[in-house]
Amino acid sequence: MRPDIIYHIVDKRAWKDNARSGAYQPSTVETEGFIHCSTASELQNTANRFFKGKSGLLLVLISTGQVRAEIKFEQSGDHGIFPHIYGSLNLDAVLDTISLIPEPDGTFNVNVVEEN
């Protein structure tokens, strides 16, 4: 995992719908921003806690240096510090999208995500 990249898990349909407008803005952005992960353990825990058994997901790799909206690193319950983006994500900050495919037991092995 790289410190200059943050990771976001999103439904493929929601991503495509938002991408048509030129920016990504989930419904929670006005009230709580939207949560990203910045370490391998955060990504693994988030994938399996909130998305276990779900298909049709993308992992979005975002360059922190290219995000135009405000990024705050905030406590998320008792689960650690996570980067939150407040505002729309400009799509030119997206480095790549990777399909997340659950294992047969419904969990995700995101540790296979490697740097290019």
What can you see in these coordinates?
- This protein has a single domain (5-101), classed as ADP-ribosylation fold (Alpha-Beta Barrel), CATH 3.20.170.
- The protein has three helices and eight strands, in the order E-H-E-H-E-H-E-E-E-E-E.
- It starts with a strand and ends in a 16-residue tail after the last strand.
- The chain is an alpha+beta fold.
- The strands form three sheets. It has a three-stranded antiparallel beta sheet.
- The chain is globular and about 40 Å long.
- Which architecture does the CATH hierarchy give at level 2? Alpha-Beta Barrel
Widest sheet: strand order? 1-4-8
Q: What is the helix content?
A: 10-25%
Q: List segments where confidence is low: pLDDT < 50 over at least 5 consecutive residues.
A: none
Radius of gyration, in angstroms, nearest whole number: 13 Å
Report the structural category.
Answer: alpha+beta
What's the SSE blueprint?
Layout: E1 5-11, H1 12-19, E2 23-24, H2 29-32, E3 34-35, H3 40-50, E4 57-63, E5 70-75, E6 81-86, E7 89-90, E8 94-100
Antiparallel strand pairs: 1-4, 2-7, 3-6, 4-8, 5-6
